[in-house]
Design a protein that fits this description.
The chain has about 230 residues and is α+β, with helices and mostly antiparallel strands. It has helices at about 20-35, 40-50, 55-65, 90; strands at about 5, 10-15, 15-20, 70, 80, 85, 115-120, 125-130, 135, 150-155, 170-175, 180-185, 190-200, 205, 215-220, 220-230. It folds into two domains: about 5-105, Arc Repressor Mutant, subunit A, CATH 1.10.10.10; about 115-230, Umud Fragment, subunit A.
C-alpha cells in the first residue's frame, strides 16, 4: 500500500515532515518529469525556483535521506520520486510559477549574498586558472558591498594561516593590496595563486603560510583581489 502525500504547503506524511521549500521542490520535480520525460539538474531547479544551487542541494539531500527521493550515484538526471509514495497533489497539475525547461533563463544573483563561484585557486604550486561559473550563497554568513567572489582552495601552502585545501575564500575584487595581505595574484604566464604579497625592489614576493613552501619572486603580476573571509564545510 502506497503512503499518501497530502497537498498542503507544509505536511507531515508517515512521520516525515516536509518544509514548504521541500514540498515545492517535490512538486517541481514531478511537474518537470511530466513535461520533459526526464529529471532536471540541480542548476535547472535552482534557476526555476529562484534559489541558489547550494540551497537546492541541501533540500534534495534532506529529501533523499527521508526516502522521498531516489538518486542513482554518478548518473546525471537520475533524481526521481520514490514510487512507494502516492503523489496525487504533486502530479495533479503544473506549478504556474515554474516555466518549462525550454524557457529556463539565468536568474540574476541576489546582490545581498549570492556571489559568483569561479572555480579553484592554487595554494601550493601555481596552476592555470580555469573559470567554472557557478554560485555560492553566503548571505547568511557575510554582508559585503561591491564586487565579491568565491574561490575554492587547492593545496596546503596557506595552512599556517588556517586556510586548508577545500576551504572557500571570499575575495574582494581589487587591483591594489598592502604588504602582508592575502591576495589572489595572476602572473604573466597566466597562472594564479593565493599568497601573502610583499613588494620587493621592482617586483613582488609571494609568501605562503607553510614552511615547506619557498617564497616565490615575480617581476610582474596582476592583483585580482584581497581575501576578506573564509568558509569551511566540515
Amino acid at each position: 500500500m502506497k503512503t499518501p502525500l497530502p497537498s498542503d504547503d507544509a505536511c507531515d506524511c508517515a512521520g516525515l515532515t516536509l518544509t514548504p521549500r521541500q514540498h515545492q521542490i517535490l512538486r517541481f520535480l514531478a511537474d518537470y518529469r511530466s513535461n520533459n520525460g526526464y529529471s532536471p539538474t540541480l542548476q535547472e531547479m535552482a534557476q526555476a525556483l529562484r534559489l541558489s544551487r547550494v540551497t537546492v542541494f541541501e533540500h534534495v539531500e534532506a529529501l533523499v535521506r527521508k526516502g522521498l527521493l531516489i538518486r542513482r550515484p554518478n548518473k546525471a538526471r537520475s533524481l526521481t520520486l520514490n514510487p512507494d509514495f502516492d503523489w496525487p497533489a504533486i502530479t495533479a497539475g503544473p506549478l504556474k510559477s515554474v516555466p518549462p525547461a525550454a524557457s529556463l533563463a539565468a536568474v540574476p544573483p541576489d546582490e545581498a549574498g549570492l556571489f559568483p563561484f569561479l572555480g579553484q585557486i592554487a595554494a601550493g604550486c601555481p596552476l592555470e586558472a580555469v573559470e567554472n561559473p557557478d554560485q555560492l550563497d553566503l548571505k547568511t554568513l557575510f554582508e559585503t558591498q561591491g564586487d565579491t567572489f568565491a574561490l575554492q582552495v587547492s593545496g596546503e601552502s596557506m595552512i599556517d594561516d588556517h586556510i586548508q585545501s577545500g576551504d572557500y575564500v571570499l575575495v574582494k575584487k581589487t587591483n591594489r593590496a598592502q604588504d602582508g595581505q592575502r591576495v589572489v595574484a595572476l602572473m604573466e604566464n597566466g597562472q594564479a595563486t593565493l599568497k601573502k604579497i610583499f613588494r620587493q625592489g621592482s617586483g613582488y614576493l609571494l609568501v605562503g603560510a607553510n614552511a615547506d613552501f619557498e617564497p616565490l619572486y615575480v617581476n610582474a603580476l596582476q592583483i585580482q583581489g584581497v581575501v576578506i573571509g573564509l568558509v569551511r564545510r566540515y
